Amino acid sequence: MLFYRYSVILVDYKFSYTLKMNSITESTTIPDLLRNVVGYVHDENTSFLLHKVKENWVEISYKHVLDTADAISSYFLEMGITKGDRLALIIENSVDWVYYDQGLQQIGGVNVSIYPTLSESEIEYILNDSGARTLLAGSPFLFRKILKVANNCPNLQRIIPVFDDYQKYLPDTELNAGVISLKNLIEEGKKTIDRYKKNIEIAREAILPSDLTSLIYTSGTTGTPKGVMLTHSNFVQNVKVCLEQIPVINKDDLFLSFLPLSHVFERTATYHVCCAVGSKIAFAQSLELLAKNMAEVKPTVMSCVPRLLERIHDKAMKNGTSAGGIKAKIFLWAIETGKEFREVHEAGKQASLILGIKKSIAEKLVFSKIKEKTGGRLKFMLSGGAALPKNVGEFFGNLGIKVLEGFGLTETSPVMSVTEYHRQVYGTVGRIIPGIEVAIQDVESKNIITIQTHESFDENFECAEGEIIVRGHCVMKGYWNKPLETAEVIDKEGWFHTGDVGRYYKGNLQITDRIKNMLVNAYGKNIYPTPVENTYLKSPKIEQIFLIGDKREYVTAIVIPSKEVLQETFNLNEEFFQEQDSFIRDQKILDWLNADIRKYSSELAKFERLKSFLVKRNPFSIEEGEITPTMKAKRKVIENKYSEDISDMYLQETEAD
């Protein structure tokens, strides 16, 4: 135990020294971060980015990034881009995303990131609402999407494909916007750098922390997407205080990036953090190749979403127990040993000699093999975007893999709270970050139950649940072009109303659900779907679940089974998943799922338990408009789309009664 504390102190000291040399102040802006790293932390020839080209990982230096950014800035200045102009991009995570962002940021441009999965009409809306003057296109598929709506976007002056053979995709009709490949744009920019070098420096120095740096459009589970206005100060202060709360991140770390940079979580937790401290970023090729990439680059830190961790958990449990016999017994013994060791450690006690020996054996026989698949060097993973089921967090803790949870919204830059590295309370999203206030407000009376800050932290504090509201440096400037909508969520006292329900538990923030998600059954009982859904998601048979029951006598659900497990259990081919009927009616499959539904129902209150369910053949999808790009279910869309089947399900249950 003494060694653990000592090692943390060493890490803290190392990080404090880095911050002293590369301090983040009230006046620091986004373009300052990377240049401060080059000035104080790394030589300009040090590797910053890694990406895979064919079969090899190629390293890109800070110098190359900054020189390329200067060329892009020079081109933009030549075409008349000025401070405050919006410059859009629709592209997967890549070095080109970084070049473009750095190029526009240092001349005061505003990054308008568009999710690659959005429809043509949504892309058109965002381009017109933001008034974007340029648009970076990341692939031929996305380029063709843009071409269909480009002439409906009068402000759009340049479309910039990242590939060279874009001419073959151009339409027969004339485009209002010019088209130039990113490669040619950079070459053109290099020709004018001497002329604009001083202008770039002047523009960079003229940026204020209060200036707009990004418009990130909310997913929109209901209504029209809104452009969240985030400032340089929003992002920079968020990074600064998160680094204070997780002081083990340093210049020697390697982050593997796979969550979309068009989303605020990856933007802050990976990209901006690395720009601030000098950590490297490796861009994963795809979600499908993520496991392979982890083994190749051996990351030390990675941001992720709960669903990825759930899949790793499910696969590890299946691999460890499916063979049965002695192998399964060893696996389960190791997990139990890890749990015992973790609980002793979390209680601040010293593990006994025997427990220490057992833990070493478990590490060698089981844990090390699982860790090898992550590259074997992970300090921790940071989970965000949704609630991480408590049992999944504990599972990783049992293995000795630390998973920190954070909470926030696009409107809060995003982090409001994050787990402290040395103090973990599973099922919570950590301690409030420095410099902000987070209150719990009674949903009905609107009275504030409690206001908590970083400084007021008490590891024994608990309170009743209510809406989570926040004020401080993380809160957005407002919604672009939407003053009324802004006034609806930021009250006169400066509190931003998150729409999330939660409470404090052991001093940490704990999320219950979204207010809009709350179901009120026919008897007036309030039911928050997320905890109920997470209970059923413990089953390895279930991939997704959508709870139904608002204004109804009892709760039902649409259940999507794990395709892999379903195929293996019933020997199904791909044709089964391509059948026209959206739902599976096979009684054997229904009974198979019902066994786990009944098993996990025992953990819930009677009014929360499923009385019936539909089994959907394929997952909810972004393309079908059923979920948002951040994987949140669009409740009204789903209920309307499958209303007949839902009504039939309730009718059959009524007749059976």
TrEMBL record:
Alphabetical list of InterPro entries matching this protein: AMP-binding_CS, AMP-dep_synth/lig_dom, ANL_N_sf
GO CC entries: membrane
Top-rank taxon: Bacteria
One MF term in the entry's GO annotations: long-chain fatty acid-CoA ligase activity
One Pfam entry name: AMP-binding
CDD domains with a match to the protein in the record: VL_LC_FACS_like
Keyword RNA-binding: no
Keyword ATP-binding: yes
Start and end residues of each AMP-dependent synthetase/ligase domain: 55-480
Keywords of this entry: ATP-binding, Coiled coil, Nucleotide-binding
Coiled-coil region(s): 179-206
PANTHER family on file: AMP-BINDING DOMAIN-CONTAINING PROTEIN-RELATED, LONG-CHAIN-FATTY-ACID--COA LIGASE
UniProt-recorded name of the protein: Long-chain acyl-CoA synthetase
Organism: Daejeonella rubra
Native organism taxonomy: Bacteria, Pseudomonadati, Bacteroidota, Sphingobacteriia, Sphingobacteriales
